[in-house]
Amino acid sequence: MTTKEALFKYILRIGDTNLILGQRLSEWTGHGPFLEEDLALTNITLDITGAAKSLLEYAALVEGNGRTEDDLAFLRNDRQFFNVQITELPNGDYARTIARQVLVDCFDFYFYQELSKSKDETLAGIAQKSLKEVTYHLRHTSAWLERFGDGTEESHNKVQLALNELWQYTNELFEMNEVDEILIKEGIAVDLNVVKTKWEKHISDLVEKSTLIIPQNVFMQTGSRKGIHTEHLAFILAEMQALPRMYPDAKW
Amino acid sequence: MKSSQDIFELFSEIPDPEIPVISIVELGVIRFIEVLDEISIQIIITPTYSGCPAMKQIEDDVRKKLIEHGFSVIDIKTIFSPPWTTDWITQETKEKLRKYGIAPPEETTQDKSWLLGIEKKITCPRCKSLNTKLISQFGSTACKALHQCQACLEPFDYFKCI
Ligand SMILES: [Zn+2]
After folding, report:
1. Right CATH number for A3-246 from 1.10.3720.10, 3.40.50.720, 3.40.50.300, 1.20.1260.10?
2. pTM of the model
3. Considering only alpha carbons, which residue of chain B is nearest residue A120?
């Protein structure tokens, strides 16, 4: 694998994770638990989808064979997507959506801090931009986790159940392969072991503060680095890609 | 040939699509202007937020303004570094926001006191009371949060600090 091929795959991985999470979260728009929270989650979704656009635009540029960011988003099949599986899981109730969002926001918070130092200037720039936004998101979603955990018995149980079910998807965030190996040598990619240590400490403190427990001895899911997904991804793509596939020349 | 300063002045006539009392120059999204010759120009802009829907409108307005002033080779690039920050908004611009009914950013982004759970008190843009509370960290547009004044009871937008 050349450095260019590795870089393309690396950007796709980050871009796809943002794209699929943004698409999933957008399902809450107009359905939030109350108006202010509906707006909050929609704003978070907008930032995440915006980051996806910048990243896929850059991926298309690096690939350099004429594909655009729209081609990458709308004309690939599920096995060609590299988003982590946690992003494609159904939203569930609000506790579950928030629990996932905390886990991913916290990952992004430390990941973008490291990526901001990348020797690849475009990636570093996108990371600096997203870091500011994610810091704000994490503040919001952490407050919700605490409120659910330390709230009523019902909210506590719902958010604990969500953590129990989501935990198996967290290890994928930190998996590294040949792509990472090549790009870490070049000073482009992030050493995810560094991110993992910080993430574990942060999440463990936050979960404890929220009177919740981190599940122990959980079997960890894997696959997304190879394009292997849960059954849910294909359904998201079917919805997201239907229009551009049916009307390939459609313009806004 | 026009100078980049002349172009900055032209752009000062373009209102922000979401907050029309301030210009896109005051907002801080125009980062760099280079006039290459009578008809060619390069502009570098930076988005306020990654997914801000107003950026497309701003780009279209910039292009239209340049065409009106004789430019035909227009190159507009978007950069992300250094990331946009409310620290770039001047005191004068903040005053315009306040008069419009939007509480301007009060903290600087260097202030990390929220990490310790300390919420900054925001001044009501209408009655100047400090007795206000946060309703939601997110508001009607990507750049705003929602607060309410406990003295005059009016809800108001706060230009959030990033
Ligand atoms: Zn007031």
Report:
1. 1.20.1260.10
2. 0.92
3. B81
